[in-house]
Amino acid sequence: MTNLIQQPDTSFGWLKFTAIFALIFGLLTVFSGGSVLFGPAEAQEWAGNYVRVVVWFNFLAGPLYVVAAIGLWRRENWAAGLAAFIAFATTLVALGFAVVVLRGEAFEMRTVGALAFRIGFWVVVAIMARRAARQI
Prior knowledge:
By secondary structure, the protein is mainly α. The chain has one domain (about 10-135). Helices cover about 80% and strands about 0% of the residues. The protein has 5 helices and no strands. It has helices at about 10-40, 40-45, 50-75, 80-100, 110-135. The longest helix has 29 residues, at about 10-40. The protein is elongated and about 50 Å long.
């Protein structure tokens, strides 16, 4: 008789942590984007030389972050595809942002870092979610 010891699924723990982070990230993205777009003048002043299309994209992508977070938490197969879509769409926006920068328009350097972080985060999430889906 063989005695099998089942190993804990550590990737699922990381997936839950990532889902919580994505949820908070999504809510903060909606809040910060909404503050710049619809909030008081102080919020726009704080944002500095923001590129409107990037802020609009972030504001509209925030709810997708929340949906992806829910899918990750529930280990839904579609969450990997949604994360990949978010990464791809963010990459397209980053390319548009690069055109704005190359035209010499004013921008905030922190936008470069924020876009790079968002792309990297969602690429990693897509990979993690795809691997988790294969383990089901």
